[in-house]
Design the sequence.
């Protein structure tokens, strides 16, 4: 991206998230006329406040010229999809959508604030914040922006609730010798997010200070967004190996509380160097720069990114998207190999099962039908169910076969089904490992 584009971005999107992003601007109170006296003017009232989203999505209809907002029929599915994805972590998220015009260009813009508006004035400020979002370049049809203040809030919350002192084994310890004192988060153009964690070790004299630097570099990989991390430990050379062995265990897990989030620091043993670990930049890229989105009419949008940008105004990924038909699939999760004590005559076996799937839209509107051949379904219509296998009869060594079927249909009428074959082995309880009679869900008891 050119420098002029960067400055333009900063002017149009720049700002903060949350209360800090409400911006007030006051005009000058005096004006000097050419070759004339200074005229004192009364103060002008502040411009209306603007509250930018925590993150935003912009899309254009790629099948019309000039490019413009998507059809009204796709607006509610956009909102519903985002609300469903955020429901677990942000059940009160405020999601606003509008067809936003910037000059002769327009785009459907979805702004997300992870908390509800505290007042009517805040609601109006958010509407103005939505209208100020302008992510897309001329030929782009998909863009995602994450506000830097939102990222800082996530990291700050995790830093606050994690331990700040560790002992020589890397275990949290209020009397430990390794102190974590602070952190710094930097958004560095054009493509880096840098996290620095500072602290000191009071075992030597004088204390040995250290800085752990995690640099996340974002790239366009194929048509997706890639992120690589490099980690450095800056401390006194003679103390580095000793300190690293502790920090590798004790590094602060600054994990963003968002759906599917991943740990920023992973525990690694047996090394004299800090491990390569992913920082906040990689966490945000993983969770916000989506690969695809499910749409009505059995379609899905596949993201084709060609631009990623990091700067003081936040993180942006943009490009185009294609439409394709969805191909839903489902799987049954649960044990397929069970054992009962024999000889058995009409024995029963109660066991939980669940269904997981992909490319089925409308999580709350799924229709789920379970069928157990040789058993009874306890929770019909639920993702998590219980099956009571009945009529298990045989002598030691026999294998009784049962089948469990499930069919799942989504709100668009697309469906997928699968069958799990369950084998119940009748065993001599005096010879078989009896733990599998009591806890068949253990990995050692599940079989293939």
Sequence:
């Amino acid at each position: 991206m050119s420098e002029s584009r960067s400055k333009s971005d900063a002017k149009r999107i720049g700002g903060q998230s949350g209360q800090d992003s409400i911006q007030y601007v006051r005009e000058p109170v005096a004006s000097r006329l050419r070759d004339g006296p200074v005229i004192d003017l009364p103060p002008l009232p502040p411009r209306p406040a603007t509250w930018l989203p925590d993150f935003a999505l912009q899309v254009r209809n790629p099948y019309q010229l000039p490019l413009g907002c998507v059809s009204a029929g796709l607006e509610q599915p956009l909102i519903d999809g985002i609300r469903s994805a955020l429901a677990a972590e942000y059940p009160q998220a405020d999601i606003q959508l509008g067809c936003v015009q910037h000059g002769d260009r327009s785009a459907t813009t979805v702004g997300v604030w992870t908390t509800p508006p505290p007042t009517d004035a805040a609601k109006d400020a958010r509407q103005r914040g939505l209208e100020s979002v302008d992510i897309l370049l001329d030929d782009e049809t998909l863009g995602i922006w994450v506000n830097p203040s939102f990222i800082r809030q996530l990291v700050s919350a995790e830093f606050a609730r994690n331990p700040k002192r560790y002992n020589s084994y890397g275990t949290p310890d209020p009397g430990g010798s390794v102190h974590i004192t602070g952190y710094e988060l930097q958004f560095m153009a054009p493509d880096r997010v840098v996290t620095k964690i500072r602290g000191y070790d009071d075992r030597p004299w004088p204390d040995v200070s250290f800085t752990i630097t995690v640099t996340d570099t974002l790239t366009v990989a194929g048509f997706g967004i890639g992120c690589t991390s490099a980690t450095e430990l800056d401390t006194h050379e003679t103390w580095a190996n000793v300190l690293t062995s502790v920090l590798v265990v004790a590094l602060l897990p600054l994990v963003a509380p968002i759906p599917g989030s991943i740990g920023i620091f992973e525990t690694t043993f047996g090394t004299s160097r800090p491990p390569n670990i992913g920082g906040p930049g990689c966490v945000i890229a993983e969770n916000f720069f989506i690969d695809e989105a499910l749409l009505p009419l059995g379609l899905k949008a596949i993201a084709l990114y060609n631009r990623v940008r990091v700067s003081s105004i936040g993180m942006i990924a943009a490009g185009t998207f294609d439409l394709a038909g969805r191909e839903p699939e489902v799987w049954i999760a649960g044990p397929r190999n069970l054992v009962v004590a024999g000889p058995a005559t009409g024995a029963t076996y109660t066991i939980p099962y669940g269904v997981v799937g992909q490319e089925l839209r409308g999580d709350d509107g799924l229709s789920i039908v379970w069928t157990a051949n040789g058993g009874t379904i306890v929770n019909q219509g639920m993702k998590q169910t219980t099956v009571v296998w009945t009529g298990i009869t045989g002598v030691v060594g026999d294998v009784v076969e049962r089948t469990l079927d499930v069919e799942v249909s989504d709100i668009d009428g697309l469906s997928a089904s699968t069958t799990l074959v369950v084998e119940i082995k009748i065993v001599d309880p005096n010879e078989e490992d009896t733990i599998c009679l009591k806890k068949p869900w253990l990995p050692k008891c599940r079989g293939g």
